[in-house]
């Protein structure tokens, strides 16, 4: 015999109730021996409770009661609920007159929901010529008199059940009301939370059923609640012990009391979905999974109470007093954590009991307050408990680090010594993000990295294309899901928590909205987006003013924009401090040498104690292209310059390259990597733009490029033979001091020299160090261009995903 239990959502009008009948019919046709246990249909119990509340306050309830009746009869006009409806009418009338009700009355009211449900299903089955027998569990399950949460009297109930089934068995389908029972005085009682499940497992136990099938509206037990964690996976099989942990920690389709009768008789429990009943669901048996299961469960509606006091140190019996005082008021403590100094004790209670718990403890510790042994008892109301079942402390650092990285700081945590469960108390507003972060970390599910990209010009636009093109591969190879949730220019942002797609350019035009940085932070927060990275592909100083705010709100930073690193040294230090305080990272490899691995190399050399004595080279890709081509070919300066602009080598405003600012910035960035505290004003720059052309808009300048031709024709002709022009940066001097010398200048070098041989848009960096002596470490390669730069930014993003 199998016991089938159907929950309220399965029995709701429409697809639910139709499918329930279909499932039962299917089993009967296959000659399966079954017993059916039913909850009240849809929201029936809540509705009845609502009407009862109204009636008890003598408020009008008739309209709601009529709607209730209408729902029960909707589509089932042939069914006679006169008796149940009359009972309800009388009960509500009485409550309304009295202006109050007892738990006993409430049980009588609620029981009508299960009776109506079982009566309906019995008749619908009979209409299909199935031998169905309405079974009122009040004649079977006998309980004590604790209305609202009655305890079954096992012996008596078992005897009743067995005798009923001996009478009505064979091919009959007994359709049993769940949740309701009666006491020895024949008064209606109910079995409390999860009561219908309890009825089903009691029947399974008494009848020694082969399996209990619990039909819900989900496909089984998941690694986490799929409503909160979209990546949650179904668990195929788990043991009662593991299920018990889940039940204890709040998995709401299981409850400890419903499992115990099954464990006793070793009866498997299968969690199934009415709406997808061919799915095998989750099977719970006595055998443990070899690898051990992991899953996340959540306790909501809880509060954290904190008792603090210096005088508690070494005092005997403080915990006992807390527990005793709370137990006296029937307040249960689910999680407790205490420092070894005993100065603070934190524990979790049900939210609706928190105030009472505080009052009780204030009374208990009144004299300790006077003696100043206890300094305060506080309640943190909006908290939730996350339990990682199957997690021990050996690998706990992974989810824990991921939480900290995402600015979720648990308020309290504890572990079970043997059960391999770790529980964390987090602020309720952080629950969603915390669950997703932990889940991504403990299961081998792609870790989601949420990217906000600012600036989608040459570099930013290319980066987006590169990410979209390779994201699938990266997800497969590295289990990292790069999700671009925001793309912004200076005016508009396109937001999509599920990630933009290849039509992003059109979407910005059509769906982009004007924004402030706060809007983006709020969006990420509201959608609980984790592992946030902001990527600055603008050339804007104004945008760098957002960096601090982004860091404070949990974003790591990646930037191709050089401005933030070349503002005042004070800002430079302040930003690093902010990053450290918030445990955030800032990567900017493309700031010098585009995609070349320069900054990383210099950082490593410096960190390892290698004395860097000088860095010299062609720092600008666009000016490299300009002078390499101009020196070797007989063409106009303006023509070659325009070519460098067209190839995307220059800054958005090409004057930034020609005036030497861009090289100056790069030089300063390297100097600061060596812990020098130079300011931008310290850089000696040879400005390549003749004075008369420096003012005005970029466009005006571009229209006057021809004016540069004579100047550079002359410079070219005045060189020694076999020499070429190179625009170089040079960081030199005693670099162990506070500041170094920074020069940016146009030089004429022999064509055969290392600098003279540079080609195309290549940059070359010569790094002189004490160990390497006169032979510098040389890094050379494309120093500009959207594709290489975007690739470099992409590299920084991936590096950050690994750091997490
Ligand atoms: N092109 C290259 O070879 C290299 C460029 N870089 C840097 O990459 C950055 C981007 O360069 P490109 O893509 O060539 O420039 P771009 O002019 O093509 O694109 C810049 C984008 O930033 C947007 N923008 C400007 N202010 C903004 C703000 N406040 N908020 C949001 N968006 C804003 C603009 O609307 C534009 O879409 C620059 O900082 C540049 O120095 C770094 C290394 C190499
Ligand atoms: N404009 C820059 C681009 C890279 O930083 C250059 O030419 O090097």
UniProtKB/TrEMBL annotation:
Its EC number is 1.1.1.3, 2.7.2.4. Residues 597-798 form the Homoserine dehydrogenase catalytic domain. Residues 455-589 form the Aspartate/homoserine dehydrogenase NAD-binding domain. Pathway: Amino-acid biosynthesis; L-threonine biosynthesis; L-threonine from L-aspartate: step 1/5; Amino-acid biosynthesis; L-methionine biosynthesis via de novo pathway; L-homoserine from L-aspartate: step 3/3; Amino-acid biosynthesis; L-threonine biosynthesis; L-threonine from L-aspartate: step 3/5; Amino-acid biosynthesis; L-methionine biosynthesis via de novo pathway; L-homoserine from L-aspartate: step 1/3. Its cofactor is a metal cation. GO terms for biological process: homoserine biosynthetic process; lysine biosynthetic process via diaminopimelate; methionine biosynthetic process; threonine biosynthetic process. Residues 2-273 form the Aspartate/glutamate/uridylate kinase domain. Keywords: Amino-acid biosynthesis, ATP-binding, Kinase, Lysine biosynthesis, Metal-binding, Methionine biosynthesis, Multifunctional enzyme, NAD, NADP, Nucleotide-binding, Oxidoreductase, Sodium, Threonine biosynthesis, Transferase. The keyword Cytoplasm does not apply. Pfam families: AA_kinase, ACT_9, Homoserine_dh, NAD_binding_3. GO terms for molecular function: aspartate kinase activity; ATP binding; homoserine dehydrogenase activity; metal ion binding; NADP binding. It catalyses: L-homoserine + NAD(+) = L-aspartate 4-semialdehyde + NADH + H(+); L-aspartate + ATP = 4-phospho-L-aspartate + ADP; L-homoserine + NADP(+) = L-aspartate 4-semialdehyde + NADPH + H(+). It comes from the Bacteria. PANTHER family: HOMOSERINE DEHYDROGENASE, PTHR43070. Homotetramer. Bifunctional aspartate kinase and homoserine dehydrogenase that catalyzes the first and the third steps toward the synthesis of lysine, methionine and threonine from aspartate. In the C-terminal section; belongs to the homoserine dehydrogenase family. This is Bifunctional aspartate kinase/homoserine dehydrogenase I. It comes from Aquimarina algiphila.
């Amino acid at each position: 015999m199998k016991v089938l239990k159907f929950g309220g959502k399965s029995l709701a009008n429409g697809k639910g109730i139709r499918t329930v009948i279909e499932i039962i019919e299917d089993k009967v046709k296959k000659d399966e021996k079954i017993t059916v246990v039913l909850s009240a249909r849809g929201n029936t119990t809540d509705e009845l409770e609502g009407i009862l509340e109204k009636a008890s306050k003598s408020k009008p309830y008739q309209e709601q009661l009529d709607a209730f009746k209408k729902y029960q009869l909707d589509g089932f006009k042939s069914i006679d609920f006169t008796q149940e409806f009359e009972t309800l009418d009388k009960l509500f009338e009485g409550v309304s007159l009295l202006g109050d009700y007892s738990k006993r009355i409430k049980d009588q009211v609620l029981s009508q929901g299960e009776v109506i449900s079982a009566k309906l299903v019995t008749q619908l089955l009979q209409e299909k010529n199935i031998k169905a027998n309405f079974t009122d569990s009040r004649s079977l399950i006998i309980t004590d008199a604790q209305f609202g949460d009655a305890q079954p009297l096992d012996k008596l109930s078992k005897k009743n059940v067995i005798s009923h089934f001996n009478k009505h068995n064979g091919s009959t389908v007994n359709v049993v009301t769940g949740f309701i029972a009666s006491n020895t005085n024949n008064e209606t009682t109910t079995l409390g939370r999860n009561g219908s499940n309890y009825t089903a497992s009691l029947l399974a136990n008494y009848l020694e059923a082969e399996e209990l099938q619990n039909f819900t509206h989900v496909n089984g037990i998941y690694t986490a609640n799929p409503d909160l964690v979209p990546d949650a996976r179904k668990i195929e099989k788990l043991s009662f012990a593991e299920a018990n942990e889940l039940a204890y920690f709040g998995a709401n389709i299981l409850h400890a009391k419903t499992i115990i009768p099954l464990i006793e008789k070793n009866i498997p429990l299968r969690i199934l979905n009415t709406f997808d009943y061919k799915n095998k669901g989750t099977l719970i048996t006595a055998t443990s999974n070899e690898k051990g299961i992991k899953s996340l469960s959540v306790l909501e509606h809880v509060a954290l109470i904190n008792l603090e006091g210096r005088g508690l140190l070494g005092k005997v019996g403080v915990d006992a007093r807390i527990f005793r005082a709370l137990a006296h008021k029937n307040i249960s403590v689910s999680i407790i954590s205490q420092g070894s100094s005993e100065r603070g004790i934190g524990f979790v209670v049900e939210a609706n009991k928190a105030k009472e718990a505080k009052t009780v403890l204030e009374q208990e510790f009144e004299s300790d307050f006077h003696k100043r042994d206890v300094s305060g008892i506080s309640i943190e109301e909006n908290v939730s408990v996350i339990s990682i079942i199957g997690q021990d402390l050996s690998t706990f650092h992974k989810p824990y680090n991921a939480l900290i990285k995402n600015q979720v700081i648990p308020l309290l945590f504890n572990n079970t010594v043997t059960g391999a469960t770790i529980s964390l108390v987090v602020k309720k507003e952080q629950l969603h993000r915390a669950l997703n972060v932990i889940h991504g970390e403990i299961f081998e599910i792609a870790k989601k990295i949420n990217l906000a990209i600012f600036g989608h010009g040459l570099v930013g636009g290319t980066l987006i294309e590169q990410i979209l093109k390779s994201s699938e591969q990266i997800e497969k190879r590295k289990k990292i899901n790069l999700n671009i949730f925001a793309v912004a220019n200076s005016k508009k942002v396109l937001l999509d928590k599920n990630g933009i797609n290849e039509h992003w350019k059109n979407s910005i035009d059509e769906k982009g909205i004007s924004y402030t940085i706060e809007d983006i932070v709020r969006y990420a927060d509201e959608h609980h987006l984790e592992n946030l990275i902001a990527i600055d592909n603008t050339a804007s100083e104004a945008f760098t003013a957002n960096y601090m705010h982004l860091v404070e709100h949990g974003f790591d930073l990646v930037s191709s924009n050089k401005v933030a690193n070349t503002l005042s040294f004070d800002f430079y230090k302040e930003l690093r401090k902010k990053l450290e305080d918030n445990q955030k990272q800032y990567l900017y490899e493309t700031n010098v040498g585009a995609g070349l691995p320069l900054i990383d190399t210099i950082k490593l050399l410096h960190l390892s104690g290698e004395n860097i004595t000088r860095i010299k080279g062609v720092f600008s890709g666009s000016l490299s292209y300009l002078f390499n081509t101009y020196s070797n070919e007989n063409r106009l300066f303006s023509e070659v310059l325009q070519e460098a602009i067209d190839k995307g080598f220059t800054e958005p405003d090409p004057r930034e390259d020609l005036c030497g600012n861009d090289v100056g910035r790069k030089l300063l960035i390297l100097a600061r990597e060596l812990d020098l505290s130079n300011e931008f004003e310290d850089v000696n720059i040879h400005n390549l733009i003749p004075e008369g052309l420096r003012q005005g808009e970029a466009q005006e300048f571009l229209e006057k490029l021809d004016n540069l031709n004579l100047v550079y024709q002359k410079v070219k002709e005045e060189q020694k033979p076999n020499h070429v022009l190179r625009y170089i940066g040079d960081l030199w001097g005693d670099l162990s001091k506070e500041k170094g010398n920074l020069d940016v200048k146009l030089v004429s070098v022999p064509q055969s020299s290392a600098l003279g041989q540079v080609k195309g848009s290549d940059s070359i960096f010569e790094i002189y160090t004490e160990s390497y002596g006169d032979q510098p470490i040389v890094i050379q390669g494309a120093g500009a261009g959207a594709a290489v730069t975007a690739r470099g930014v992409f590299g920084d993003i991936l590096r950050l995903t690994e750091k997490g």
